[in-house]
């Protein structure tokens, strides 16, 4: 009995000194099998180290994923900055519009017939381009011709004038715009091209507007005056005419007291009026 107890004690001491449990072969040879350890049991120290490595890998993966995402606070700041910039642009445009002075309140709407609508021929407009976006002078003169009271008559006048100018000197109609008795503005050379009058000054700084008709002894129709006001306001709105523009009349040098007298008696009362320029007959 003493011998058996010593054998069991020796076996226990051997198991305590060994970090790995006996295997089945040891049992078959007469040894003892450690039921507490088993074949697959690891040491506690190695198990803790493996868990720590897995935790570190998981945290590193989370940090990598987070680095590709925009933080909610940063996203909110970016949206707020864009909103503030948009509000600033809107306020700036509004203040800019307030600084654009209009010569008068305009109740008459602006009607424009562009050149392609009345000149549908192969000869395209060829005219020198203004080197300024907004010109400073407007010259108004009458065409010293019959008036037109509807669009058909006004279009016919423009077509006949274009043909006459092209036949006489291979040039286009000299006006930038014409205003008919129907209260409509007709585009001739437009806002971007120089006028074609050799005897008028400021070809590169002036828009020439013709009032269709003879207005030496009689006034233009009220609707023509209203359309002229609408044209000036529209030109400012399009940044094609300076807000502090100068308004002029053009008179025939051989009869300065008569040419367009009725028209200019009215225009001299308008804002921005600066006087007459002379032209040759």
Task: Explain how this protein is built.
InterPro entries: Amidase/PGRP_sf (IPR036505), Amidase_domain (IPR002502), PGRP (IPR015510), PGRP_domain_met/bac (IPR006619). Belongs to the N-acetylmuramoyl-L-alanine amidase 2 family. GO terms for molecular function: N-acetylmuramoyl-L-alanine amidase activity; zinc ion binding. The chain is an alpha/beta fold and 281 residues long. It has a domain at 112-279: Peptidoglycan recognition protein-like (Lysozyme-like), CATH 3.40.80. The protein contains eight helices and seven strands. β3 and β4 (185-187) form a beta hairpin. The termini are far apart.
Write the SSE topology:
Layout: H1 2-17, H2 24-28, H3 44-67, H4 72-99, E1 112-113, H5 115-118, E2 135-142, H6 151-169, E3 177-179, E4 185-187, E5 206-211, H7 222-237, E6 241-252, H8 261-267, E7 273-279
């Amino acid at each position: 009995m003493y011998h058996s107890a010593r054998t069991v004690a020796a076996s226990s001491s051997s198991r305590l000194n060994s970090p790995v449990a006996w295997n089945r072969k040891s049992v078959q040879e007469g040894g003892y099998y450690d039921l507490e350890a088993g074949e697959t049991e690891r040491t506690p120290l190695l198990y803790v180290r493996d868990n720590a490595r897995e935790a570190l890998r998981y945290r590193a993966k989370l940090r990598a994923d987070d680095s590709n995402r925009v933080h909610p606070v940063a996203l909110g700041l970016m949206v707020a900055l864009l909103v503030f910039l948009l509000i600033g642009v809107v306020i700036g445009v509004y203040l800019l519009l307030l600084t654009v002075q209009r010569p008068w309140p305009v109740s008459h709407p602006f009607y424009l017939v562009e050149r392609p609508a009345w000149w549908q021929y192969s000869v395209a407009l060829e005219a020198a381009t203004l080197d300024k976006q907004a010109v400073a002078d407007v010259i108004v003169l009458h065409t010293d011709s019959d008036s037109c009271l509807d669009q058909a008559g006004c279009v016919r006048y423009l077509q006949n004038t274009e043909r006459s100018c092209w036949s006489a000197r291979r040039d286009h109609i000299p006006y930038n715009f014409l205003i008919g008795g129907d209260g409509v503005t007709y585009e001739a050379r437009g806002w971007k091209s120089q006028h074609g009058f050799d005897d008028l000054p400021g070809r590169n700084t002036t828009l020439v507007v013709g009032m269709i008709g003879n207005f030496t002894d009689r006034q233009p129709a009220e609707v023509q005056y209203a359309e002229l006001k609408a044209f000036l306001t529209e030109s400012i709105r399009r940044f094609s005419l300076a807000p502090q523009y100068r308004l002029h009349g053009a008179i025939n040098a051989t009869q300065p007291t008569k040419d367009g007298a009725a028209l200019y008696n009215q225009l001299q009362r308008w804002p921005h009026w600066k006087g007459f320029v002379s032209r040759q007959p």
